[in-house]
Amino acid sequence: MRNYVPDIIILFIIIVTITIVRLVSQILHETLSDGALPVPPAAEASEPKPEPSLSQLIDQKSKEFSWLLRLMVNLFGYLCIFVPGVLIYKYAKRTKYMERSERSHLSGLVKFCFAGSGPDSLERPLDGQVGGGGGKGAASKRTTAQECVLLGYCLVGLMGSYLTWGVLQEKIMTQEYEGPEKRKSHFKDSQFLVFSNRVLGFMLTAVYLVAKRQFRHRAPLYKYSYASFSNIMSAWFQYEALKFVNFPTQVLAKSCKIIPVMIMGKIISRNKYEFYEYLTAAMISVGMIFFLTGSTDESKSTAMTTLTGVLLLTFYMIFDSFTSNWQGELFRSYSMSSIQMMCGVNLFSTLFTGASLAMQGGFYSSLVFAVDHPKFVVDCIVLSISSAIGQLFIFYTIATFGAVAFTIIMTLRQAIAILLSCLIYQHRISFLGVIGVLIVFLAIFLRVYCNQRLKAIKQRHQTSAAGGGSTGKPRINV
Fold first, then answer.
1. 474 in a domain, yes or no?
2. What is the pLDDT averaged over residues 451-464?
3. Are residues 184 and 106 in the same domain?
4. Residue at 477 is within a domain
5. Total structural domains in the chain?
6. What is the pLDDT of residues 340-364, one digit of tens each?
7. Is residue 48 part of a domain?
8. pTM score of the predicted model
9. Do both 103 and 161 map to the same domain?
10. CA neighbor of 268 nearest in space, from 277, 260, 256, 276
11. How far is the C-alpha of 383 from the C-alpha of 368, rounded, in Å?
12. Which family does it belong to (predicted)?
């Protein structure tokens, strides 16, 4: 007779978690309601309004500190997925639940999450593999004209999707939308934007994997949760930062993420870096300081908001650098395709943000805002589509032309994004700020040039070593 006790225990863990989440959510709601703004007498006499959600109560707090409260509530929402996942993993490992003979849909799901699905039936290099070498064989068969057309296709795809995404990101987070009775208001829930972006990305990649029949790969599903968590945190900090600093500042700050990426690379992968990499990182930091000193934004000019914006951007860079390094480790360990990576990360991102939004009532408040502001719906849909398409173009460009071509395209995109933002949203940048921008982009192009030169030197060194030449470590001077 089949033993149902392990299945019942796992379901019990999930039910208890949901119950605790509901209780804590109610306690938080009542606590914040005590300090909420009183309802005006005129409003009391009119038709009763629904009780505000936890998300709406957080919005009533001071702008400088509401992000911190929302962050803590968001993190608790993510624990609703992490905690039962850890408990189920510990229980399954202790009882050898995944190795038992009786099979069920629940045991199959648990095994897929924590043990993977075995060796991939596609042992050949998968399409879209990140690493820069995926298109080398095919590239030798293409003519120069075909190469130019394909590169132009990647250029237009990356530029179009990410320039659209950048303009709409700034519009949604900084501009007012006109609602009923000509009242204007801002959209405030950054997490809803992260959710909408990730759920569309998951749907697109899931459809692709089903069409290509790439169902199996060796990585346990839970491995994607770490990159997913850091990914949604970096995205959330990025959106929140736009409430305190302008978009050009955010774009320049993204260039500075080379520094935390190098730090994370040393911590996670024990990487070693060349002198020119440290030099260009320092140049980018100096350029960013010049830009922050020389750019002004009258709507965000207080010392408190500037400090908050810089803090949020710092957290963005830390989490974003962890994401790329962890994904690199997964690629090296399990050799999944980039589409499988994108699907797994977006799946957990959807679960994390969806659970947190449900706990806060963020779905309700965001949908109410969408109903009252139809233009927001259009912007949100286009933002999500451009984000998903942009991710696909990233993988395709790197697989076809390598990381260098991709870096150059994205650097040009950053420069054009700053120009567009200044033209559309009237940001002012002084001469010192322009010098800072030029230093940053000079450092990026210098880094790309030195990378290519070092590779050429290494290739010549290997050739000479094979012929009996010197075997010392190749280096370049900057």
1. no
2. 78
3. no
4. no
5. 2
6. 888 999 999 999 999 888 888 888 8
7. no
8. 0.75
9. no
10. 260
11. 19
12. Belongs to the nucleotide-sugar transporter family. SLC35B subfamily.
